[in-house]
Amino acid sequence: MSVSRTTRLNALLQRELGDLLKVYVTPEMPELIITITDVKVSPNLRDALVFFSVYGGSGNDEENQLKALHLLQKQRVAMQKALATQVVLKYTPVLRFKYDPTPAKADRVMEILAELELPEEDE
Fold first, then answer.
1. Taking the CA of residue 121 as centre, how many other CA atoms within 13 Å lie in the half-sphere pointing to its CB?
2. 104 close to 51: Cβ distance less than 8 angstroms
3. How many whole angstroms separate alpha carbon 33 and alpha carbon 65?
4. Alpha-helix residue ranges (DSSP H) falling in 1-123
5. How does pLDDT run across 83-123, given as a tens digit for each residue?
6. What is the CA radius of gyration of the chain?
7. Rounded Cα gap, residues 65 and 57, in angstroms
8. Are 21 and 71 within 8 A, CB to CB?
9. HSE of 117 in the Cβ direction (CA atoms, 13 Å)?
10. 54 burial class (0-12, 13-18, 19+ CB within 10 angstroms)?
11. Is 0.85 topped by the overall pTM?
12. Mean of pLDDT values over 55-83
């Protein structure tokens, strides 16, 4: 599979999985906002590593991550079946979920930069 085709497939799966979250995940955990940040499909199209991030919730970040991961794994089969009806492929990839800490790290960097902002001095 060419690189551009794989890239398009990754983007398509990311978009479709984001829509499926509204049906399979959000009703069970309305206090959390779970987003699909990236999808990496294996070259043989049999597996897909799905990266997600979590916002909100009443607990600490790690607790929210574990709740979200548990729910995603619980809904994996249903999401794969729904994905198979929406995206026509020879093989529907087996979904594996992994937390993506990048958005949380970016938020922390922005907080640090905001703290470091110095008032402008008149010259």
1. 2
2. no
3. 11
4. 3-24, 61-74, 76-86, 102-116
5. 999 998 888 999 999 998 877 777 777 777 777 776 666 55
6. 18
7. 10
8. no
9. 7
10. buried
11. no
12. 88
Question: Is the per-residue pLDDT at 27 higher than 60?
Answer: yes
DSSP characters over 26-68 = TTT-TTEEEEEEEEEE-TTSSEEEEEEEEEE-SS-HHHHHHHH
Encoded amino acid at 17, one letter: L
Give the torsion sign (CA, 57, 61, 66, 71): positive
Q: How many CB atoms lie within 10 A of CB 56?
A: 11
Class of domain 3-116: alpha beta
Place of tokens 């548990």: 70
Cα(95)–Cα(77) distance, integer angstroms:
8
d(CA 13, CA 8): 9
1, amino acid identity: M
